[in-house]
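To whoever picks this up:

The parser on our side crashed when reading a file containing two proteins. I've narrowed it down to the boundary between the first structure block and the second sequence. Both blocks are reproduced below exactly, byte for byte. First block:
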Amino acid sequence: MPKVRSFAVVLRASRVASRFAPRLAPRLAPRFAPRFAPRLAPRLAPRFAPLVTSLVASLVALNVAHAQRADTARTKAWLLAVDRALAGAVAEHGVTALVEALAPDAAVLIPGQPILRGREAEPALVARYGGASRMGWRALAAVASTDATFGCTVGLGTYTPASDSTHRERGGTYLACWRRTNGGVPRLIGLQRSDAPATAPLPSATFDGGAMPHSATERGSALREAQDADAAFAEAGGTSAGPGEAFAKWVAEDGLFPGTTSAARGPALMREAFAQGPAGRVLLWGPTRDLGFAAGGLAFTVGEATNKVNGSDSGQTHTKYFTVWRRERDGSWRWIFDLGSPRP
């Protein structure tokens, strides 16, 4: 269809650029340490041989680490370019361009709906954002996996419902996760839009309160590990200490809620945020095990949540959540972004 071709044309430049995405470090590193350490070591006193070997290995490790950082930066640039391309396609062709970008197993979370999967999300997406309604977004940051195949974008969203006679644009935030296929084609594998209830569009300065979370630095592609961390996180949230302490325990030092205006990050931000909530708040949740993705030290999980006050079912609200996780140096998974939206 023309819309499919249009999106493919818009993304062709990013595919060409991604062809040179780094996998050079793993290829080059083995050529240096084995080659130079044996040559240099015998020329020096035997007692210095271990030192020379260690020094060469350290230099190679530094080169690999530097290349990895450069790779992550390039992957982030690719993610932002892909995100902008899809936003442009949706502005030109409507919400069907978004539907066409979805992977078959994509997790789609939009206000007022349960967690949707892949193309089954089309009717709900069209009902909310199609016709005379309008949707838009702008990415402000990205985080990338260490293997250059996966990453997530975060930014500000807009929504103008056709039912609003004033045509007032609503604001919100969003999270989107992307996977690079073997052919280099990007696929949207996770989306959370939070544009309800109606609010004024948020300024870009909303994200200027502090630094954004950094990309993955460790390897790790086991989605089950991230989901197990999510389940343990949920279990901690159900204790007498309340959800605030659980969020503070499981957040990364640079983790945040998208759209926050606070300069605080990590545990400090969590305690600050939950201190402003109602006393006796109970938050129950759990991951949906057959949705989500992980690669290169980065993952996302989704699930359903229920909010209660003092354990009462009266006045409880039902939500769903989208959490981006990063594997830390100690092997643990910590969340860096968390965003929710209402569900039936």
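<<boundary where parser fails>>
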Amino acid sequence: MKVRSAFLLVPCAALITFAYACSDSASNNPPPAGDAGSKADAAPGVDAAPLPDSGPPPTVGPVELKFEARVGAEPFACGKTYAGIGTSSATAAAGDLRFFIHDVKLLRGTEEVPVTLDTRAPWQSARLALLDFEDKTGECEFGTSGTNDIVKGSVLGTGFDGITFKIGVPEDLNHLNKDLQPAPLPGSGLNWDWTNGYIHIAVQLNSMKLESDGVARVPPFYSHVGSTQCSGDPADGGTPGCALKNRPTVRLSGFDPTKSKIVLDAKKLYEGSNIDVNTPDTIPGCMSSPSDPECPPIFTRFGLDFATGLPKGSPVIFSVEPR
């Protein structure tokens, strides 16, 4: 009986071994996803490495972009005069400084994170913001009484180290009836006409030099950049469009919206210009005409290719400083 019992146990053990070898546990199939690296699979006495903690996901928070306008080391202010302007080292009075911005993005390394603009009349819509540093006093006769040096919005995340934005009114908003548009367009005072749209940026310093008669002042030096070579009048059923867009793109590194401000230095704009003189039979200063000899040095400092109207580097008049 003992011999027979031993004989019967052998095939049973063999069957159990065979069944185990044919099971999923002993097959060549990989373990189910999620099992690899588990504590059960770790070598005896060795704990599996914990998964890295990525922290909480980024959230959307408010952001405030601070701008400042200066002429050299001095604040831009209507009623003030400034020395050493342009190639003639002219003395000049503040005349205007306003500009639109859109397509604002904060930079984090190579990542560009869009800023959603607040709707904040009369200075902002969800698409567009107006910076205005004149108050219609002194020689700032073409401006408005209100001023604005802040752009407010919201952005996803933190840890930003740069900023980029476009100057001017977007093409799809540039040729609409200004009286039917939301702020900041109707009250900006920067509209040319339906066909040509808006002045994207206006900077003006007025030379204090007298004409040869010793009485009259030389004309103001306007620096008005807007789209040109435009055609199609909406009032007549046309579709407007401009061959020369003339919208600069600003890109600045080292910008932290919680600690930095963006500075526009009007003095730098005139480093290649003589604001004491103007070519006869042309509009004073530069109003973006493709044939105006006063425009090329202004466009260069605005970061624009004068021949094509396309961006050509970030404008040298903008920089980043601590708040």
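After patching the parser it read the second block fine. The first helix runs from residue 2 to 22. Residues 60-322 form one domain.
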